[in-house]
Write a structure and sequence with these properties.
The complex is a heterodimer of chains A (252) and B (420). By secondary structure, chain A is α+β, with helices and mostly antiparallel strands. Chain A has five helices and 13 strands. In chain A, strand 2 and strand 3 form a beta hairpin. In chain B, helix 1 packs across helix 12 and helix 2 runs antiparallel to helix 13. The chains are: A alpha+beta (252), B alpha+beta (420).
């Protein structure tokens, strides 16, 4: 009987000490954790990008490598017509390798706002993976349940000198596992510009991640870009020399 | 002039002080000449601006899918997604009496790269033969020749060639978004360099045969974005556009036929503003002249106050004295007009047909409202305006004579003749 009482008491203590509601929540910590979910120090993955526009639909399968926030490399595997096409992002620059003509071209600064691989993402989106906690002031706008799920809703407003194009960003994050559920990006006039939705939470590369991301541009109703991660590995052996023009031009 | 004694007296009085008459007449003649000349030059500038804006690249009329402007999307081709029979469309357009030339065009945005350098480009697919009849910017290439269909050849502007450090014969990589979403890319040979004089155009436009651009961006041959049309005179563009809109064969998606006056309303406003300024010029020039003429008329009548006193003493009415002075004003006006016309019109003919070239004083091209202007002082003829100026000159002379005439009519004969 004593033993039972002790066990109950211990369990109670354990519950009290682990109850998240009792701890002060730091908005910056939440965003930092969310920000790091899909970005290890280094990573490699395979993803399929599905782009649906008013005029066409296409799927591109690609292999991706990244190192920190400065380096990444994307190589198209399918469709066959474009296989080998690769994009290298290093130190804020973008190079494209075009296997059909066996040439590499560096993207001029004026094209950074252009579409990346025909998707609704811009080249700038891909290069400037700015760390949210550095560029934004973050506050918790909502802390409670939505549809029976405990979530935080965070409002991110850019710091005065931050080099970002957004007027504000809203994030909804699941409290249980820090998974982002959606993000809404507003332009400087406060108009909704794009919505990101995260789903299919799965363990990839030993980490719980949203395996599917949808991006809906507000100015093009009915259009979307979806990114499905098929493979992901984190903290693999990569160094900056991998992100070179020579690697870019390798066909496989 | 022989019918009225007053007119005859007025005319003869001009000879009383020839120097003064001559100076007055020269003043008015210069006013007339300056008006005609300044307005002629301004109209020359406007005409050239409109001509340059519509014939350098654009054409006086553009035919598009109704959705094409202002976003100029790759997908908004004439006839919608299915395209249209471009040849049939061109035949109908060519059949119009006012149409001088018509040419199909395809546009796409993308990148051009040479070695390390890459530039954003606006690709323009053209039919080289038809385009030459329509626009001027390809008439004289800085270097090289026009591209041949099916050979992966293209032209770039002088400024883009400079930015890419490329020259005729070099290989360029072209990347564009295909209509199927693919990243279209291919190698092309630079076969020519054009120079329109408009920096923006020379830095961004890449010209290739329409079929080659359609292949690159995955558009079928019956899909074009635009048919540009040239009319004999920019001023008939509106009427021609309306006519074409009625006779063009109907296609799935609505077609719009837009004259330059709709595409470039700012230029239309600018020309209208210039037109309205001409009246102000008349007011200013003759407004200044009127005081000079009035002054000399006042002097002339003052000198002749005894003559007027005698006329009045002999029974002439003040009205007839007015008539004498006003006749003199009219005579000065007529002499000035003849003098002005004799000096101005040969100058106008000269400046119209062989205007002096000012290019030696200018370092770069002159552009106005996005139109390239030749650095010359070419004048345009405007007969109605000349008539207005002539009328304004006569009115000025008469108005200037009005006050002296009234004063002369009020001369008191007894006082004046007795020397008071």
């Amino acid at each position: 009987m004593r033993a039972i009482a002790l066990t109950v008491a211990m369990l109670f203590c354990a519950w009290v000490s682990s109850a998240p509601a009792q701890e002060p929540v730091d908005a910056r910590d939440i965003i930092d954790r969310v920000d790091r979910i899909l970005r290890g120090e280094s990573s490699r993955g395979v993803a399929t990008m599905e782009v649906v526009t008013e005029h066409w639909e296409r799927q591109v399968t690609m292999e991706l490598w990244s190192l920190g926030t400065d380096y990444s490399l994307v190589r198209v595997r399918a469709p066959q017509k474009e296989a080998g096409t690769a994009t290298l992002m290093a130190d804020g620059n973008i190079w494209n390798y075009l296997p059909k003509v066996e040439r590499t071209i560096k993207l001029p600064a004026s094209m950074m706002g252009g579409s990346w691989l025909g998707s609704h993402f811009t080249n700038d989106d891909v290069v400037k993976e700015s760390q949210l906690i550095e560029d934004f002031d973050i506050e918790i706008a909502f802390d409670g349940e939505r549809d029976g799920v405990a979530v935080w809703e965070l409002l991110l407003t850019p710091k005065p000198e931050a080099p970002v194009v957004w007027g504000s960003i809203e994030f909804q994050v699941r409290q249980a596992d820090d998974m982002p559920l959606w993000a809404k990006y507003y332009d400087e006039d406060g108009e909704l510009s794009r919505t990101m939705e995260y789903s299919e939470f799965a363990v990839l590369g030993g980490r719980l991640v949203p395996a599917v991301m949808h991006m809906y541009p507000s100015d093009k109703p009915g259009e979307r870009t979806t990114l499905l991660y098929e493979e992901l590995e984190f903290n693999i052996d990569l160094d900056p020399s991998f992100f070179s023009l020579r690697t870019l031009q390798r066909r496989r | 002039m022989s019918e009225s004694p007053w007119l005859r007296i007025g005319w003869r009085n001009l000879g009383r002080n020839r120097k003064r008459t001559g100076l007055t007449a020269i003043g008015l003649a210069i006013g007339f000449g300056a008006n005609v000349f300044v307005v002629g030059w301004s109209e020359g500038l406007m005409a050239e601006m409109v001509e340059s804006a519509t014939s350098l690249v654009n054409g006086q009329i553009e035919i598009h899918d109704v959705e094409f402007r202002p976003e100029r999307s790759l997908y908004d081709t004439i006839g919608g997604r299915e395209g249209t029979d471009v040849e049939a469309l061109l035949r109908v357009i060519d059949g119009d009496v006012s149409v001088v030339a018509a040419a199909p065009r395809v546009y796409a945005g993308g990148l051009v790269s040479s070695g390390e350098a890459t530039s954003a480009g606006m690709f323009m697919g053209i039919d080289p033969v038809r385009e030459l009849a329509l626009t001027r910017f390809l008439d004289q290439l800085v270097d090289g020749r026009l591209p041949v269909t099916g050979q992966n050849e293209l032209l770039v502007g002088e400024e883009m060639a400079r930015q890419l450090s490329t020259s005729v014969g070099d290989e360029l990589v072209v990347v564009a978004s295909g209509a199927d979403g693919s990243m279209a890319n291919d190698l092309y040979t630079l076969v020519g360099i054009f120079r329109s004089g408009l920096t923006e155009l020379d830095a961004t436009f890449v010209v290739m045969p329409v079929g080659d651009l359609q292949t690159l961006v995955v558009l079928s041959p019956n899909r074009v974005h635009e048919i540009a049309v040239a009319t004999a005179d920019p001023m008939v563009a509106e009427a021609t556009a309306a006519r074409l809109a009625d006779i063009l064969p109907s296609v799935d998606s609505a077609i719009e036929v837009v004259p330059w006056t709709v595409l470039n309303p700012v230029m239309v406003d600018y020309v209208a503003l210039a037109d309205s300024m001409y009246f102000v010029i008349i007011l200013i020039v003759f407004g200044i002249a009127i005081f000079g003429v009035a002054n000399s008329m006042l002097m002339a009548t003052f000198e002749r106050r005894r003559e007027f006193a005698v006329m009045l003493a002999l029974g002439a009415t003040p009205r007839s004295v007015w008539a004498v002075v006003l006749s003199e004003g009219l005579a000065v006006g007529v002499v000035s007009l003849v003098l002005g016309a004799v000096v101005t019109f040969p100058l106008m003919v000269w400046f119209h047909n062989a205007p002096p070239d000012l290019s030696m004083f200018l370092e770069s091209d002159v552009t106005l409202m996005g139109a390239l202007l030749s650095p010359s002082l070419r004048v345009e003829y405007d007969v109605p305006y000349w008539c207005t100026c002539a009328a304004a000159l006569i009115v000025t002379a008469l108005l200037a004579a009005l006050y002296p005439a009234m004063r002369a009519g009020r001369t008191l004969p007894a006082d004046t003749l007795s020397g008071l």
